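Let us work through a complete example step by step.
Step 1: write down the sequence.
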Amino acid sequence: MISSFMMQFTLPLLLIIGLLALSLKIVAEYERLVVLFLGRFQTVKKPGLRIVVPGIQRAFRVDLRVVTMDIPPQDVISKDNVTVRVNAVLYFRVVDPERAIIQVENFLVATNQLAQTTLRSVLGQHELDEMLSEREKLNENIQEIIDKRADAWGIKVINVEIKHIDLNDSMIRAIAKQAEAERERRAKVIHAEGEYQASEKLLSAARVISQNPQALQLRYLQTLSDISTNDNSNTIVFPFPVEMIQALKKKES
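Step 2: predict the structure and record it as C-alpha cells.
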C-alpha cells in the first residue's frame, strides 16, 4: 500500500520536473528570446535563465552578433554591355529581434536574396571602368540601398565589400591594349612637352647671343674643349667665325 501511495505522488512529481526542465531556457549574452504566447507576440526576453512554458509559449532565439554573409557570384551586364562576374561580402546585425522574427519568415535568407538583387541592379547602372576604379562609391551605394530595405526587418547593414570582379580573357586582353595605348599616349605627350620646353630655352639663348656676339665665340670654344676631351674623336670640326672672314676681306680690299 505504501508503494502504491508513493507511485501516485512520484509520477506527477516526475512530470512536473520534466515540464520544468523543458521550460528552462538559457539565453546567452549575445542572444535575445522572442516569445509568442498562444501565437501572439508577448515579449523579448533578455540574457539569463528564462522560463518558456511548452505548448503555451513558443520561443525563437535571435543572435545579435554581426553576421558575415558571402554573396554568391552574380553575372552582371554593365552599362557599356560588358559581362562580368561579381561577388561580394555583406556585414549586418539584428537590432530589433521582434521585427526580425515577425516581419519576415527567414531574415537570413531574405537578406541574402536582397543583397544579390541589389548587387546586380546597382552594378548594372555603371560602366566597367567605374566598377574597377570606384569600388568604394559602389560599396556605399549598395550598402545604403540594402540597409534602407532591410530596416523593416529589424536589420542594420554595417558594410558591403565587393571582393572580385572577374572578366573573360578577351576583355582582359582589350583592357591590356587600352592600358598600353594610354601609356604610349602619355609618353608622346611628355616628349612633346620636353621639346616645347627645349625650344623655349633655345629661343631664350638665341636672344642672348644675338645681343652679345661674343657669347657665340665663347660657345664655340666650349664646344671645342668638350670635343677634345673625348678620346674616341680623331677629327675635330671647328666652325670658323664669319666675322673674321669679313675682317680679312676688308684688309685685302
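Step 3: interpret the result. Residues 169-211 form the longest helix (43 residues).
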